[in-house]
Amino acid sequence: MPCINRPIRGRNTLGIMHSAEGETFVTFEQMRYFLTLAQTLSFTETAKQTFTTQPTVSRQIKMLEQELGQPLFYRKGNSICLTSTGQLFYENLSEADKLIQESIHIAKTNVADYTGSLRVGSSISLDLEPFVVDCYKQFAAKYPRVQFSFVKAPVPELHAKVMKHEYDLILCHEFSTGIMNGMERQRLFEYGGCLVYSKALPVAQKGQLLPGDFSGMSIICLDSDSSARGIAGIKKIARQIQLSYKSLITVPNLETVFFYVHAGLGVAILDMSVKEIHHKPFGIIPLYLESARVVACAAWDGQNPNPAVLPFVNILKQKAATVSPNDDLYH
């Protein structure tokens, strides 16, 4: 029989095979070891991926071959490869595994009868309510019995509560999810930044405004726990747009940012997603800089048992795919 001497690239998952009396008996563990070994062609790597020992893998594969009455692998020194029987067994078992995994996914994401809750937290520097509302409308139409809540909080609070499952899902900037080990993430969209100023300022009466026209004023920004770009990012953008500022004034929320800007006490570097910048008292100068762009993403604990999380994430993902990088998110 020919030797198939290359790794098989496929799913590193498995299904459950049931056996009846008188039929060939193949255990769940044997299938798991076989599928992984067929993909890696390494007993060492298979033991690592299945969290067991190499002798255990070898013993179970040998028992499987004895049960089937056919060799599944050729062994030569420290290398192995699939036999033609092993190749056929792998292909058929992989197809069965794929169907089982799809069935499991459907069962896990079918929450039409789920009567629990879905708690979503969002960074206070994101202004995504219209986007989330649109997503919730789709979600509620499919899962009307799920109680939905939406709150805004500083990033450290979001991180702490999502890990404790006090929030099921959080929406934040991509950079902040990097510090959350073990979290699942879904990138949603990116959007640009802008300089926000009060139209009541004398300099605002000029025809064509540049960021440098506001030099000498303070920059109002969120504190480091909430800012999308961080204090260092704001300073970098100010240098790039040649804005020589008097001072950086940090505040705890967007409402205070706009209060200061409206009062003419400074300008702000914010995101095009923030609806308040489109209101009459404010003017904006778009910032076409890579450093001014930010990415919004969803993050959740993969161990959270709430079955409503993944369906809502899928809706977020689908809706985000329709948002252009130049959109101001419905405002």
What's the Cα radius of gyration?
A: 28 Å
Point out poorly predicted stretches: 4-21
Please give the CATH class of the largest domain.
Alpha Beta
* Secondary structure category: alpha/beta
CATH architecture designation of the largest domain: 3-Layer(aba) Sandwich
Number of strands: 12
Total of domains: 3
Q: What best-fitting shape do the alpha-carbon axes yield?
A: elongated
The biggest beta sheet is recorded as: 5 strands, mixed
Secondary structure layout plus pairing:
Blueprint (H helix, E strand, L loop, with lengths): L27 H13 L2 H7 L4 H15 L4 E4 L2 E4 L1 H26 L7 E7 L5 H14 L4 E7 L1 H9 L5 E5 H4 L5 E9 L1 E6 L20 E4 L7 H11 L7 E4 L2 H9 L4 E5 L10 E6 L6 E8 L7 H12 L11
Parallel strand pairs: 3-4, 3-5, 8-9, 8-10
Antiparallel strand pairs: 1-2, 5-12, 6-12, 7-10, 7-11
Helix pairs in contact: 1-2, 1-3, 1-4, 2-3, 5-10
Structural description of this entry:
The protein has 331 residues and is an alpha/beta fold. It is 36% helix and 21% strand. The protein contains ten helices and twelve strands. The strands form three sheets. A five-stranded mixed β-sheet has the order 4-3-5-12-6, with helices on both faces. The protein has a five-stranded mixed β-sheet with strand order 9-8-10-7-11, sandwiched between helices. α1 crosses α2. It is elongated and about 90 Å long. The termini are far apart. About 5% of the residues have low confidence.
